[in-house]
Amino acid sequence: MPSLPVRSPQELLHPRPAGLYCPAGDFYIDPVQPVARALITHGHADHARAGHGTVWASPQTLDIMAIRYGEDFCQTRIPVEDRVDIAEVQATFTPAGHVLGSMQITVDDGNTAITVSGDYARVDNPACAAFALAPCDVFVTEATFGLPVFNHPSPQSEVEKLLRSVAAQPDRCHLVGAYALGKAQRVIALLRQAGWDRPIYIHGALQRLCDYHIEQGIDLGELRPATVKQGKDAFKGQIILGPPSAFAATWAQRFPDPVICFASGWMQVRARARQRGVELPLILSDHVDWPDLTRTIQDLSPQEVWVTHGREDALVRWCELNQIKARPLRLVGYEEEAD
Predict the structure, then answer these.
(1) Is the pLDDT of residue 336 over 80?
(2) What integer pLDDT is reported at residue 338 of this predicted model?
(3) Which CATH number among 1.10.3210.10, 3.40.50.9100, 3.60.15.10, 3.40.630.30 corresponds to the domain 9-149+287-328?
(4) May I ask which residue range the UniProt record assigns to the signal sequence (predicted)?
(5) Within the chain, where are the H helices?
(6) What secondary structure does DSSP assign to 174-228, as a single string?
(7) Do domains 9-149+287-328 and 155-282 have the same CATH topology?
(8) Surface-to-core class of residue 55, CB atoms within 10 Å of its CB (0-12 exposed, 13-18 middle, 19+ buried)
């Protein structure tokens, strides 16, 4: 048998303006521009864009892209449950624990394995598959919360905080800002786990993605549209979810004296909560915080770490102090707010 070509990690995968490119497979991972061949880690808009030729992704991510962009979001869809051979490499998909359908992608040419984590989380998330380690020689990681100050509380404690506030203020409704894909469904599922069995009201922008989660077996309980046709008093003591954009529109003004909440890892930064006019910050993140970020690197023990976006310099420095080779990739086009 012919021997496999020996490539350096940089030859196997390297940054281009469109994103991370693999010459041996002639594809990009999470490209920020339309390309002929793309592997997609998950359905958030800064990672999954329309206009590609062929797209490889988990079946759920492909469905989510069709929901968000239309059925013709690409020319050819190829669902990947586990692994796929593409030209001279094998791509293995491993759950990332970020949102429904999210995957890490490990590119292996037989000599070097590089895992591109996309966005990932290692805490309980009843709305998606749990994170699993993807062994590799090079680990490509985000660093959204890549500073030691980010040590997030447990999701359950934050949901209990919300429920205590609801119980203490029965004459007010609680408006919870949550991103349409992943965060909203996770908040709802956590509320159900915590025993909230009453209807949860949602903005219309959340409906289709919530319906899809239910179709995929995620128990969200009874959901109702958050309209004021039944009278404003009907929302006293209720929990209402909407996308962050709706809080700057007239929609949020329809509800009398609401408690404004926002579910995000960034709510640990008090200044951000104040800027948004948040009365009840809920520190709920779908990204690893600093302890889980560094724990993941320790668990994988890769030869190298590449940092894609976020607090790159702090994580690179931590790696160096722990005798791990590391470098920032300085990729552009990925939003820190998609949390």
Answers:
(1) no
(2) 47
(3) 3.60.15.10
(4) none
(5) 9-12, 59-69, 155-168, 183-193, 207-215, 270-275, 290-300, 312-321
(6) EEEE--TTTHHHHHHHHHHHTT--S-EEE-GGGHHHHHHHHHTT-----EEE--S
(7) no
(8) buried
Report the pLDDT value the prediction gives residue 172, as an integer from 0 to 100.
Answer: 95
CATH fold of 155-282, please?
A: Rossmann fold (3.40.50)
Structure token digits, residue 266: 């960034």
Measured between alpha carbons, how far is 208 from 115 in angstroms, rounded to an integer? 31
Helix or strand holding residue 108 (H, E): strand 103-108
* pLDDT tens-digit readout, 84-95: 999 999 999 999
Question: What distance in Å separates the CA atoms of residue 83 and residue 73, rounded to the nearest whole number?
Answer: 23
Q: Over the stretch 109-156, which tens digit does the pLDDT of each residue have?
A: 999 999 999 999 999 899 999 999 999 999 999 999 999 999 999 999
